[in-house]
Amino acid sequence: MRLPDLMATGWAEIWAHKMRSFLSFFAIAIGIATFFYTLSVLSQRYRQLDKSAALAGVGRVDTETNHPLGLTQYKDLSFRLPEGSSLSFTTDNEWLWGGWWGSRLSHKGQLLAGCAIKGIMPTWKDSNFVYKLEGRFINWQDVENKHRVIVLTVYPNEKEKRKLWSDGDDYGEKTVKLTDYTQHHHLLNQQIIVRNETFTVVGLLHIPPIEKDARFKKDQERDSTLYIPYTTWYDLFASDEGKGSTNIRIVTGKESTARTAGKSLSSYLRSQFGPKEKPEIEFFYEKLEERLKDARKSLNNMLFMGIIAMIAGGIGIMNVTMAVIFSRTKEIGIRRALGASRKDILFQFVVEAMLLGLCGAIAGMILGYLAVLHLAEDTSQMTFSWWVVVGSVLIALVTSFLFALYPAWQAAKLKPVEALKNE
Amino acid sequence: MVIAQCKKLIKIYSSAQNFRALDEVSLSIKQGEFVSIMGPSGCGKSTLLNILGLLDEPTGGEYLLEGVPTARLNDARRTQLRRNHIGFIFQSFNLMPRLSVLENIALPMRYSDMPRADILPRARELAVRVGLEKKLHSTPLQLSGGQCQRVACARSLANNPSIILADEPTGNLDSKSSADILDLLQDLNKNGMTIIMVTHDPKIAAGTHRTIHMKDGKIL
Hints:
The complex is a heterodimer of chains A (423) and B (220). Chain A is of the alpha+beta class and 423 residues long.
């Protein structure tokens, strides 16, 4: 019998026993839904990690030292790093509060709150730069001359966030969140008062919507940040106590040179601050591997559940095929009498089971798609690759084929004369 | 020309205390013959028909179909011979209840090498030949017993067999339908078809060229 005839016969039987068919492919559908969900989420995670790695640079090295480092040290350290490396010093965040006790921030008399101020260098933008820059960025002149310039982040218009962040009242003084304020006020080239010092906004960093933000660790709180020259920050915020800490970031571009850069950094800090200085060096590729390991672990658990569901589905199909063969023994005899070979009978039941598997795959993919839409953390960049669809269908077909093989072989083995006697 | 020849056929059912269903049966059927087999229940008529139709294998002896010895053929070869040379008509019609008249007639052709495009036109032609041109799309449940047996007759002709084996084809029919089926078989026979029919009905047997009587697994 040819495949189209086998499929037509199989489909007619499935349609004639809709409830039985539904029950037998349901478990397959659950298994496929799990596979589909897992494979979709897995492929999206890998894509995101790839993007994050590309954006951050695989050869990124980070550390923090409890000493404020100056420009001389910056030049010294730069000299020791592998060729082509980018070095950046940044300060900690200083939170600006609107109240009378805080580091006041205002624009045209309006007190602003809910933001941090950070000192950076021009090389800051060599890693994780997801922004669209309006105006200019902080340059070396700003750093060397301690200019009072600001580059600030502007969030995309996010209605939901704005609803949550209403205007505040700090001890009787009306404040507005800077994030909200920048939605309505274009601050480029405007003057902002920070701690009684007048700063000029020279650049705006437009942040992409969170779903398009490819950074490894996203800024979940979505508070605004004011970036000022590294040296200016120390003038303004660290001079009181004469101390501070420095975050050091090196971007070498390659995983192989990152280790050398890490060693140079470590030995330089020890040479500067004594043998007790043991900075914790973070290699980005190690973080990446860790994240991949975590992703794999959780997805392996999901896949295990999927395999269990598929085995249950396969057993269901096997059970149904056996029951079908028992109830259709006479039919097998008639078909054999009319010229069907053992192979024809075998294929008839295998094709019928595989059609059930295909129905399960289709239902499963719909379920899986709904699961992705409603359960996955971030669906915005979720694309359904053709290989996930093909993979899901193949898994269903192979499972039903394997589990239908034994009962179908039993049917094929029946002697025509004995099958015909069966009523 | 001898189309089917049995030489000392023996069939023993080991599951039934070595019951000897056929006991050295020898028989020759010539091309174009219409032969009926009669005898009491359990005399071995159906067993003989099953062996002639290659649905069962003899325990001993030899059966030649169109000169081909069949006793030691494997299943695939037996299936091929059965498909190409033998047509069956059963007492209880054995139609597929969910298939239409047309599809039931077409079924044996689905297992043959016939081009797919030729199958339904041929099935339609056979349906016309047995007078069912108005029932092509009905299912067996919508037909009378006589009409069902006509479908079975048409189906038996699907692959242009050299021999038709009919196992009590009128057993489930009233006298009018029985007569109609006999007419149909006689008509087929007049056109050169070899037919072997098992029957209990002497009137039906009288309509054939030759009647073989069996008892206790032997031809009398």
